[in-house]
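Suppose a classmate hands you a notebook page containing two proteins, each written out with its sequence and a corresponding row of structure tokens. How would you begin to make sense of it? This section walks through that situation. The first entry is reproduced here exactly as it would appear on such a page.
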Amino acid sequence: MDKSQQKQIKEAVRRHYAELARTGSSSCCGPDSNCVPTQSVAQMIGYSQQELSSLPEDVAGSSLGCGNPLALSEIHRGEVVLDLGSGAGLDVMLAAQRVGETGRVIGLDMTPDMIERSTRIAERAGVDHIVEFRLGEMEDMPVDNDSVDLVVSNCVVNLSPDKEKVFQEAYRVLKPGGRMFISDIVTSQPLPEDMRHDLSSWAGCVSGALEESEYLNIIRKAGFEDVAVMDKVDATRAELGTACCDGSGDAPMPLNIYSIKVGARKGAR
């Protein structure tokens, strides 16, 4: 994929999520769709009612993801956590509860409107002294080398047209021994070429999805160790809310798609 195509994809994704931020919507779905209510989706993809009830209402119902990356990750007091594609801040807020007053949580998003929205929510929630939202791209993170204990992301890496660079950057910012937990969409086989060029499907978490083994190999190539799929759910029919993600309602997919949770570690030096 050349630089021009990558730029087109990123702009399509940026416009899509900027519109969601401006309208206050928490769903990828259109107004006439039959999507599952977002708080129900959040529970279906792994967020507990206890977690959701601890958050402001406008972030508790804002899951646009495919799984809870915090569900399988240990987060310790005082740690620094980085959330890639933080959106309205659901995972950032939950991580803030676990790192406590001595910790730090950074939300990274490439959409100015989403940064403004999540920053306002954090201020109202009284956690703005723990969390910080930074405008930037996953392929070029505004984060120092070896400064983060844990990287998480919820169904966002698939939106990038340069996933190798994303995982190289994640590796760079992690401290030696740091961990990464990612929820994302993968496929059972390579996507048809026409779907690869569908910009609306890129924004909807489908066209950027890689075949599972290729996805895991890119993580290993970036330098990560102990790369493992910790959970895997067939999301082809999108009952977990990934129909919301791809904007296609219950339209059949041309191949199987899966929601996976992947864990990995940066080696200690």
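The notebook's second entry, a different protein, reads as follows.
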Amino acid sequence: MSYRSRIKGIGAYLPPRVVTNAELSTMMETTNEWIVERTGIEERRWVEPGEGGSEMAAKASKEAMEKAGVEAKDIDMLIYATLSPDYNFPGGGVFTQRLLGLREIPCYDIRQQCTGFIYGLAMADAFIRSGLYKNILVIGSEVHSTGLDISTRGRDVAVLFGDGAGAVVVGRADDDKHLIMSTHLHADGAEAEILWTEAPASRNHPRITEADMAAGKHYPAMQGKKVFKHAVTRMPQAIMEGMIANGLKLDDVDMVIPHQANLRINQFVAKMIGLPEHKMHNNIQRTGNTTAATIPICMHEAIGLGKIKPGDLVCLVAFGAGLTWASAFLRY
């Protein structure tokens, strides 16, 4: 017997500390105007000492489970997407499992960066379709603030990122009014180094040196113009791929939730495909880029604002390091 899957509940968590552009300007040579013009970001959230990604993931998951009407005993699998695990190993999945009091279920940790949530959603959809599991937690959670070069040297990247978590419970669909219709995943490592953190690296011995530290190789690095070009090429492709696969027209889509990397990228993508402004929701202005967490956080907000209603046709789309890109089409 074959099954279809759906998002049964969604949750999100943002740390209480708000870091404005004005505050960043006291730490590095930058201005609110400079940041807003290039990224659209006005503020972001940072964790306080003692709070990690797994704690945020658990808080988002509890809300998702409550909204889905499931308890810890009902969860059959956990998929945790992040580029910033609490520790080198083990991954954040088992720590989140422990915090939630889940059974001895499988816990996956996946590393597709900004595209991680959609990759996780695709995995959950496949497991539900197979009939193996009934309820799967898919989580995106990131703590960037502890790993940024908060200085003038690192400002191009440091101003972009925030902390946060989002989660969904994916379960069996009872009808075609609420279901995950399709997912579309891609990667191309030809230019993987244009967005990466070079050190520490297990391919090097030692994994990190004083020279690496002095050069800032332990901080994320990005060739912004190249990343922008790839993003505005791949994201429209992923959207169109899903529309063709499902026989859709742009008018059929009620809301597009794009990865929140840069407001200018998302506005450019919407313009390229002719998407009306009211059909794309962005919240990077207030959250910054929370990588694997951006899509569930943004979708959670759009639902709360009434921009996504039960039965609406929603497109999720992302582009990120790897390079990776993906889309998912669903009826919420």
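A careful reader of the second entry would note: The first strand starts at residue 5 and ends at 13.
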